[in-house]
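Hi everyone, sorry if this is the wrong subforum. Our group has a chain we'd like a structural model of before ordering constructs, and none of us has done structure prediction before. Sequence below.
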Amino acid sequence: MALVVQKYGGSSVASADKIRNVASRVSRRKDEGNDVVVVVSAMGKTTDELIRLARQMTDQPDEREMDVLLSTGETVSSTLMAMALKSSGHPAVSLSGLQAGIQTDSTHSKARITGVEPSRIQDELSRGNIVIVAGFQGFSPSMDTTTLGRGGSDTTAVALAVGLEADVCEIYTDVEGVLTADPRIVPDARKLTTIGYEEMLELASYGAKVMAARAVELGQVHSMPILVASSSTEAPGTLICNEEASMELRRKVSGIAHDTNVAKITIVGVPDHPGIAKDIFEPLARAAVSVDTIVQNVGQGAVTDITFTVSRTDLVKALSIVEPVSKQIGARSVSSDETLSKVSIVGTGMQNTPGYAAKMFRALADAGINIELISTSEIRITCIISEDGVVDAVRSLHKEFEVEFEQPA
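Answer:
Right subforum, don't worry. Here is the predicted structure as tokens:
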């Protein structure tokens, strides 16, 4: 008997009919002799609607109360799923993040999982129940409800799979797997059969929304195989696994990722002396504001300019921190731009192989797209560009690098 952890996203449980469809899929896995744990997201646009309601109460909702509010979306999905399974004759029980033992730190809206205590789940499985867990939520040391941020249900699923020592974690969504680009922009984007954790982590971190980066990272650390597949078809999906197990690693470029949730902050006239970067970025870190690309110009006249990017959703919070800090350190001014996006090429085959940056820059230039910032890793090149150029950028890069997608011999 195998232990399988499945996760179904919001689009997969967006209506009563879709919930019944998922319940039927889950029932089949149980009938095949497996123990099954299912993690669900909130139905459709429920989270957006809850945020809208909160904004009607106040422009700046308290983060603790927001976590309690937003967690109700997943609670609704999990209870409805349990009801659907029971009505089909399959014993099931719904559990909150607290009941499922999802322990987190105390950071509201972006909590990180610190541990999993799976004894309640194990007890329910021993009774023959299918266990339905509300994703995206956990509990802090003070027993407050916390939420895990974007893609939190993915992270819940992988954490439970690790904690329960499951055989596999299956992520079901509205696409058939990990594609070479967003199919809404590139209709002929192709599905990958397998992909290594490192490549998938870069794709997820730089805009591929099929899988949350934190969930991929957790899978990599614990070598938990993750299958990404469609909840509406039986088509085989994409297996995210250890690099040595991936059969397609000879691809030069695995995919094109993009993200429009990008904002840029520039601090002009920063005194150029040791410790100044610490004074700027430590307060941002304490406020749980994640900083991405950082560029510091060569200092002239004992001053320099520092530019960095944050998510657009964090811009207001970041500016509220950076503006007073910039005055304290004697910088001249602070400016921001939230009309940006980023586009990346990712592939392990790029390591130690020259020419990819030049090829990427040429493709963007030919499409008339200006590059504002550049960041790289061993297997990724990312360009910050204007938001209105992201569609042309993704299409141009996918076409430019399509010859690099090699099939296994």
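For your construct planning: Residues 245-249, 403-409 have pLDDT under 50 and may be disordered. The domain at 257-404 is CATH 3.30.2130.10 (VC0802-like).
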